[in-house]
Amino acid sequence: MLFKAGLCSVISLCNIGLHSSAFGHTCNAVRSTLSKCTSANLFSWPCFKPLKDYDSRSIMVSSVTSNPKTDSTSQNSRKKDHWSSNGCQKYSTAVDPGYRGENMEFSEGRSVLLPSGHRMPLVGLGTWQAKDEEVEAAVSEALSAGYRHFDTAFNYGNEYAIGRVFKRWINDKDHLRSDLFVTTKLPVFGNRPGDVEKYLTESLRRLQLDFVDLYLIHMPFALMPNKNGDNFEANEDGSPVLDPSLDHQKLWKALEAQVDAGRAKSIGVSNFNARQVANISAIARHPISCIQVELHAVNQQKDLRRDCAKCCPNIAFTAYSPLGSPAAPQHFQNKYGYSIKQTSAGLLSNPLVVEIASTYKKSPAQILLRHHVQQGIIVIPKSVSPARIQQNHEVFDFCLSEDDMKKLNNLDQGEEGRTFNFLFFKGVENHPEYPFGKN
Ligand code: A2P
């Protein structure tokens, strides 16, 4: 009891700013301990419950983490001072009014609380387009740089290589599986209730894991699988055979069964529109924890964020292609012979982004990523370059001013900024659940 009271006094002193003195080491040690606590277990000391500790070495916000489900008072106080200790304004003032924010919970500026009750790190490594040899090195590099969140998909074809790294990492006695946050996705040709378990089990086998932290329905439309089930069935002209029988609510129930079975901690969707999200949320027994969509400075998904907040106030947004996916045109040309129009192509050299970057002595990529994480949007920049992997994770030691946030908000071109419309799947716009251009 005395020990607990002592720790509370120490953390209070830390919180009022004494951490810049020699007292800092004590503060860091105490914070590192307390970062493993929730309000629920803090008061039944000891609270060393294994819990996701996303790189507490460089946590800057000093408030003790609480469990908002059980502690509404601390929820309010955390909202008030969330960003204050690293000089940031309250996050809600930096977000365009009208969507999310209000009910969002951050943890120490580095993760968000999902509706499922689990936490998800704000920065993860994207792995789309990363080949086996590259991705193995990239994931190792990212782990060394402090990443604990990794995003992959059955369809990326790189789960085996990523799994090899996880296996090695978890086998190290200093590491815990519970420190990782791994997302993978149900392939578009697996969008049938009876196929969900098969594809998730296969992904787990490849990733050498017993469960994933987040399982997403990759696409809202469905394609028929080929005989091997490893790709879509193609018509003679190469176009995919559509599966119009898709029922999102039934599919969601099959995902919920995977949570019940312990194969997924949280579940969500990707590339869905707001109507589709609301339709699932109407019957969801396990909440839609996350929606992953294309999201970057020229396509900020403001309408989708506002509309999803109506049915699902705490749904987390993950931004794929947060740097504008500069390599996407080449990829689609090589793989599908398809030319894409890309408004976001020059995002990394956008004059405003470059100017803001020079003011903060950061790279344009860090400015683009910070603009999102400062609003509580999760980012999964893809990189296979060690220097960029490291750089993309270093977005928690500075804060964009209100004014710069607004300037970056104004880069948005809405739908005009979209790169990924999936029309490279010839004829997909005829699927009843094709998500774009419909409400
Ligand atoms: P590379 O893998 O060679 O680093 P997005 O996540 O928006 O799809 O962007 C990924 C693309 O951006 C990849 O081509 C990646 O190339 C490149 N990239 C990733 N991080 C950076 C960075 N910090 N600066 C410049 N380009 C980057």
Q: Which structural traits does this protein have?
A:
single chain, 439 residues, TIM Barrel, 36% helix, 10% strand, globular, disordered N terminus
Report on this structure.
The chain is 36% helix and 10% strand. It is α/β, with parallel strands linked by helices and 439 residues long. It has a domain at 125-430: Alpha-Beta Barrel (TIM Barrel), CATH 3.20.20.100. The strands form two sheets. An eight-stranded parallel sheet has the order 4-5-6-7-8-9-10-11, covered by helices on one side. Strands 1-2-3 form a three-stranded antiparallel sheet, with no helix packed on it. Helix 1 (2-15) packs across helix 2 and helix 6 crosses helix 15. The protein is globular. 47% of the residues are buried. Mean pLDDT is 81; it is low at 1-87 and 89-103. Adenosine-2'-5'-diphosphate binds at residues 126, 321-327, 348, 363, 365, 381-385, 388, 391-392. The site of adenosine-2'-5'-diphosphate has 19 residues, from helix 15.
Largest sheet: 8 strands, parallel
Number of strands: 11
Please state how the strands of the largest beta sheet are arranged side by side. Answer: 4-5-6-7-8-9-10-11
Low-confidence stretches: 1-87, 89-103
Helix percentage: 25-40%
CATH topology of one domain: TIM Barrel
Gyration radius, rounded: 21 Å
